[in-house]
Write a structure and sequence with these properties.
Blueprint lengths: L1 H10 L3 H57 L1 H16 L4 E2 L29 H9 L7 H29 L8 E2 L2 H35 L5 H22 L9 H11 L2
Antiparallel strand pairs: 1-2
Helix pairs in contact: 1-2, 2-6, 3-6, 5-6
């Protein structure tokens, strides 16, 4: 209709009317585009709020996984040293050094010599949100900090996988058998590689803890209570398995959040 009116005015050389028609069209398009952009921004903000809420759980679990790695660090060092000393001892008889399996779900048929915690590091919510542009409206500094953090957790995941592969290659040491000198040295080298990767994973875990404490975790009071109880229960189970070498996990990040909430 507007097009027919413009053509009519153009034929009659009514330039003022043509200008007004053109202005109406431009303003209409501008208003429509502005409204569409407003709705899009509103939806993105809504999506980001939902995604950020989900991220709080991911941050907590990665924080807990890192704490868990450091909690058993001294235990695994003692176990590695004991195995290394036995591998370097003279003779070929091997009495085996079985360890208790701490994972209630993973129960292999064959005995396991070493069993490190295996966890799902990282955040699918973060990766999916980045791909969809959900976090485009997030503060640049915070988005960069979170992205660097989750890259660290991916590194932790990769190291964990390599450690598990190497642990599977020394399962023979969990049983009584005969091991020649050359095989002892080969196992010693494997153990050294596991030790190197475990030390690096512990170093990365410490960095992950620092980064998450700097970023902060915002969980409802009830969630913090439930998760704190879960950590306490895990501390009890792990202490019963590992003994005095186990260092109980603590969650200072929850104390920090409680102080912030109490500040008027």
């Amino acid at each position: 209709m507007i097009l027919r009116r413009v053509i009519k005015h153009f034929r009659e050389q009514e330039w003022t009317a043509i200008f007004l028609d053109f202005l109406i069209v431009v303003v209409g398009i501008g208003v429509a585009m502005a409204g569409q952009q407003w709705l899009s921004d509103r939806q993105q903000r809504s999506d980001m709020r939902v995604a950020v809420t989900a991220l709080q759980g991911d941050l907590f679990y990665n924080y807990r996984y890192a704490k868990e790695r450091l909690a058993v660090a001294e235990c695994r060092k003692q176990a590695y040293q004991a195995i290394a000393e036995k591998l370097l001892a003279p003779g070929e008889d091997w009495a085996g050094m079985p360890r208790v399996i701490t994972d209630d779900i993973f129960k292999p048929a064959l005995p396991v010599l070493l069993r490190s915690p295996s966890r799902n590091w990282g955040s699918r919510n973060w990766q999916a949100g980045l791909a969809r542009g959900t976090f485009n409206q997030m503060d640049d500094e915070r988005r960069t900090g979170l992205d660097q953090l989750f890259q660290q957790t991916q590194h932790a995941e990769d190291l964990q996988r390599k450690i598990y592969t190497l642990q599977g290659r020394i399962k023979t040491l969990a049983v009584t058998t005969t091991i020649g000198q050359s095989d002892r040295l080969r196992y010693y080298d494997m153990l050294g590689e596991i030790d190197d990767k475990s030390s690096l994973l512990e170093l990365i875990s410490g960095q992950i803890i620092e980064d998450i404490e700097e970023i902060g975790i915002n969980l409802p009071t009830e969630d913090r209570r439930v998760r704190s109880e879960g950590v306490a229960q895990q501390n009890e189970r792990s202490a019963a398995v590992y003994g005095a070498c186990y260092v109980p996990m603590k969650m200072p990040i929850f104390d920090a959040q409680s102080r912030e909430e109490a500040t008027p």
